[in-house]
Specification:
- This protein is an alpha/beta fold and 330 residues long.
- Helix content is 39%, strand content 14%.
- A 9-stranded mixed β-sheet has the order 6-5-4-3-2-1-7-8-9.
- β7 and β8 form a beta hairpin.
- α1 packs parallel to α2, α3 crosses α5 and α8 runs antiparallel to α10.
């Protein structure tokens, strides 16, 4: 693949650095600095994005809705015709329902299981009910407004996938996807990574891996219609690769295998302080505020990274729980 990044279909933005949940599988909530992108940051990005044919902006973080003026921030992107996807904990959806339905294309909420389990993992009282109220508010304003769910599998919920699917229906979500919790990288505000004790709070034991395998078998049996309809985004076979295999690899039960991914060639991540990365997990190229976006992604560090990256053998890629693969345009 060409090392020069001439096209960029997707850009991930972190409007805000902090989060309003205290999830066991993530340390973003420990961030104490309220770093956030400015409108001038976004406006400086826009010419490069339009030149590279960017089609979708994904608002991640941190909780984007904690930004002091999120919808003014993304207005230039929306006005330029870019699709905007909001990733959210769901706690502030009701408060911002009108602005969300007017200002973004779709929402993906984090769902950790049925009500009591979701609240326990989020460590926020009534988190499930607050998210439910927010989704109802969105749909009251715009019936059919797309709201999907994403569940991060880890020690507390990996054996309850079917219950999580039922909870997604209770919430009125249009679909649900699963991925495994990341326990090996420095992403999500974990400089230096986790120690063994912290990892053990999230990773699965051999017995729990067996329980997860049995749960996927049960999901295949009991939720075949939801897989066929697309309500469950992953097939059981993909769940075995995407959720079960990383936990087995972490225990040394199988070799880690990098997912099929071309994220560094089709996307980039801009964090709340302007840091630019090829994806959530790989080292930064540089900072947006030191010369502009294109000079960072196509600077010496960016070109060298893409020239030398072998996804299949890269140790970070081999442990990656995420993947993005876009087919080349015809």
């Amino acid at each position: 693949m060409n090392a020069l990044l001439s096209e960029l279909p997707i850009l991930v933005l972190f409007p805000h650095a902090r989060c309003n949940c205290r999830c066991v599988m993530c340390d973003i909530w420990k961030e104490r600095e309220s770093r956030q992108l400015t409108r001038s940051d976004v406006e400086s990005l826009l010419p490069a994005l339009l030149a590279k044919g960017t089609r979708q902006i994904v608002l991640s973080g941190g909780e984007p809705l904690m930004h002091q003026d999120l919808f003014a921030l993304v207005a230039p992107l929306k006005d330029a015709g870019l699709a905007i996807t909001l990733l959210s904990s769901g706690l502030l959806l009701e408060k911002h329902a009108a602005a969300i339905t007017a200002g973004v294309s779709d929402v993906i909420v984090s769902l950790d299981g049925p009500r009591e389990l979701h609240d326990a993992i989020r460590r926020v009282p009534r988190a499930f009910d607050r998210m439910h109220a927010g989704i109802r508010a969105l749909h009251a304003l715009r019936p059919g407004f797309p709201v999907a769910g994403r569940c991060t599998g880890q020690r507390q919920n990996a054996h309850r996938l079917r219950e999580t699917a039922r909870a997604a229906k209770e919430l009125g979500l249009e679909s649900l996807s699963f991925l495994a919790a990341d326990v090996s990288s420095e992403a999500f505000n974990r400089p230096g990574g986790w120690d063994e004790e912290r990892t053990s709070e999230v990773a699965l034991t051999p017995e729990e891996v067996d329980a997860l395998a049995a749960e996927i078998d049960a999901l295949e049996r009991d939720c075949a219609a939801d897989v066929a309809s697309g309500f469950l985004a992953e097939s059981p076979e993909k769940l075995r690769r995407r959720v079960l295999a990383p936990f087995r690899a972490g225990l040394g039960l199988e070799e880690p295998v990098a997912p099929r991914c071309n994220a560094p060639w089709v996307s980039a991540v801009v964090e709340a302080d302007g840091t630019v990365r090829p994806c959530f997990f790989q080292p930064a190229y540089g900072n947006l505020r030191d010369g502009g976006f294109d000079s960072v992604v196509n600077g010496a560090a960016g070109l060298s990274f893409r020239e030398t990256l072998e996804v299949a053998s890269n140790p970070i890629c081999k442990r990656c729980v995420c993947s993005l693969y876009l087919e080349a345009a015809p």
